[in-house]
Fold this sequence. Notes:
With 467 residues, this protein is of the alpha/beta class. It folds into two domains: 8-171, 3-Layer(aba) Sandwich (Rossmann fold), CATH 3.40.50; 173-466, L-fucose Isomerase, Chain A, domain 2 (3-Layer(aba) Sandwich). Helix content is 38%, strand content 22%. The chain has 16 helices and 19 strands. It has helices at residues 19-22, 26-40, 56-68, 85-93, 115-120, 123-136, 151-172, 192-198, 208-213, 220-233, 242-261, 271-275, 285-293, 304-316, 426-435, 450-460, and strands spanning 8-14, 46-48, 73-78, 98-102, 143-145, 174-178, 202-206, 235-236, 266-269, 297-300, 321-329, 334-338, 355-357, 372-374, 380-391, 394-404, 417-422, 442-446, 463-466. The chain has a six-stranded antiparallel barrel. Helix 4 links the parallel strand 3 (73-78) and strand 4. Helix 7 (151-172) packs antiparallel against helix 14 (304-316). It is elongated and about 85 Å long. The mean pLDDT is 96.
Amino acid sequence: MTISKKPRIGLLGLMLETYENMFPDIVERQTKYGMDIAERLSDVAEIYFTKPAKLREDIEKTVKEYNDKDLDGIIIVMMTYCPSLRVVRALQDNRIPIMLANIQPSSEISTDWDFGDMTYNQGVHGAQDVYNNIVRAGIKCPFITEEWKSDAFKNFVNDWARAAQASRRLKKMKIAMIGNPLDGMGDIITDNAAFLRKIGPEITSISVGELYSYLKNVSQEEIEKNYEACMNLFQVDERIPKEVLEEEIRMYITMKILLDERQCSGFTSYMASVMRDGRFKRYPFYAITNLIADGYGYAAEGDTNSASLVAAAHTIAGDAHFTEMYAMDFKSDSLLMSHMGEGNWKTARKDRPIKIIHRVLNLRGGYQDPPTIVFTAQPGPATLTSLVSLKGEDYRLVTTKGEILDTEEMKHAEMPYFQFKPRNGVKDCLDGWLKNAGTHHQCMNLGHHARRWKLLSELMDIDFAEV
């Protein structure tokens, strides 16, 4: 599993062939305009563009080529006016996300403009014609009116392209359920068939026995290589015997092999389900935390909804982290965020060591204490998101923006943690979370990304609430 590369986006430039007779260089000129747009966006997406499309057959051919290349989306740009009915059939047959960029080559009108300049910059009424028929065709298409050289335009395209890429990834995704879910945990339950139809991921089962059988597939050479990397990366408690850490590394490599072999983008497991099997000495917090850092989606307790969300969030904003709201701190107007021992260490603050602690859990059944990676997240802006299953194919994304506080280290912390201050305060945030049925498992990304989640909700045709 690797973190997603830049989105691959096709640029559909539209114009009218009539103007070629009036302005012989217009195709060359507007082609350069398209190339300039592609260059401007090159640091946020890989843009595909060769020349403007004019006739219906040109438009349909271009859209089909972008679909055949399995691109993440298409940006429609009016390079002159183009009759909208030439576009409709291509968009009806299209299978990938689209957006309309209502832009033009020049950002201001000059008194020196002639008919040529007016023609080169006349895209706005073409955008109105095209978008009218996009709406009438029932096609979802976000849009932006902006100066194409502005940061605002680039930022919007970046957000939309990441959402489009995530929506495409969700449709191809498989999420593994390892063992059984936690009985009675209601907000993680969904109809797997409805989930596949509406959100995208296929839920597949991996038995605890199958996981155990794969342990023998890991060589000592692989373990030693990973052990050296572990010792360089983490501050390891001296009380953890080398052989114990090597066993945890074996589990990490085993789970990675199994997930890749089953073509899974993420997984979920319930600690008690794994431990009750009796063949494992300890729960693999070390393995899980490293797998999340490798770009796999994860959620605890059999929560396939949140595991899918975390997997998508690696694409939406990079380095997604699994967590939940543990407690409220009214003094600092913040929430203590943590879970049993899992998280993404790539979100850790840069000025403190990432520790592997000798953790005493006193679990029933004689299980051994699990080495656990402990860190606190990087202070600064952050976004929390929840995927809510309502009924049938009705789903909702709930998100909130805020700040990870720069706090003193918790002396007795045994799990990854941080304090999150919602932008509207703990009380209003949690009231909004409860009102919108937000789940108790969340995904965290560093940075503010609510617009990306909103764009994704529109692509999936589900409800969205920012609280």
